[in-house]
Amino acid sequence: MTLIHDCSVESELLAGMRLARRAIGSGELVVIPTDTVYGVAADAFSAAAVQRLLDAKGRERTSPPPVLVPGIPTLDALAADVPDAVRTLVAEFWPGGLTVILRAQPSLHWDLGETRGTVALRMPDHRIALELLSETGPLAVSSANLSGMPSATTAGEAADMLGDRVSVYLDGGAAGTGYEAIGERPGDTSSTIVDATGVGADGAGVLRIVRAGVISRERIAAVVGEEALAPEGEPTPAASGDASAADEAPVAGEADATTAGDATDPGDAVDAPDTGDAPEASVDAAAAPTERTDPATS
């Protein structure tokens, strides 16, 4: 039996957030709303939790999950080099529907899968997601669906697919409603993924849009210039791996980046936006959350 916490009800929001923090701290999975699609979240620094996330979705380690961050300053903590073009993009589009692939800090003690030393980062534009991130720190988050299935845009859709593989479901209403669905499929509100690993510290090289999403190429070019982007349709060097999954950000060098979901899918250029005070209400004081019977999943 799966419990969904309706975050439009204050008592359920308080209880749900408290339980979500506990679940993340215990290496369990939590489904959260984001501005693009619903995501299934795990502690990014727990290899066992990340593997649990991949297993829940039916994914392999060749499809590592993106990492959601609470604010722009976290970029430098997780990425080894952040080109000026990326700083310009995140200043414009974070929080929001832009994921950037960068070289990961080599000192990080984590195991997201077969990343080839890269990490996909995003700051979501959703109060509940940002509030949780502000307390847990960076989270490994993939779209809340089974591999090969459409991304969930409601908590109920996520629960129908993932069931009791997830400990806590936070229902923040329909996701993706703030964007025009201009992704790679009808109704697609996935984030746009930009691979910046081909840009050197001196700024030489180009950015590659490896998945079209809610931030159009035209908007990106308007910020950094068309000359900063690889030509449309240009093959990505050293292609390998499967990037056709529902919401995995492809690792650097992957050509087939026609992913179907969101890099969950999380401004000002210095701080994360104000997400409100972190709730600390007792779980016992919460209203009873919605009950769902876990459907059979294969």
From TrEMBL:
It is found in: Cytoplasm. GO terms for biological process: regulation of translational fidelity; tRNA processing. Its EC number is 2.7.7.87. Residues 228-298 are annotated as: Disordered. It is an enzyme of class 2 (transferase). Residues 14-215 form the YrdC-like domain. It catalyses: L-threonine + hydrogencarbonate + ATP = L-threonylcarbamoyladenylate + diphosphate + H2O. GO terms for molecular function: ATP binding; double-stranded RNA binding; L-threonylcarbamoyladenylate synthase; tRNA binding. The keyword Nucleotide-binding applies. One of its GO terms (cellular component) is cytoplasm. Keywords: ATP-binding, Cytoplasm, Nucleotide-binding, Nucleotidyltransferase, Transferase, tRNA processing. Gene3D superfamilies: DHBP synthase. The keyword tRNA processing applies. Residues 238-289 have a biased composition (Low complexity). Belongs to the SUA5 family. This is L-threonylcarbamoyladenylate synthase.
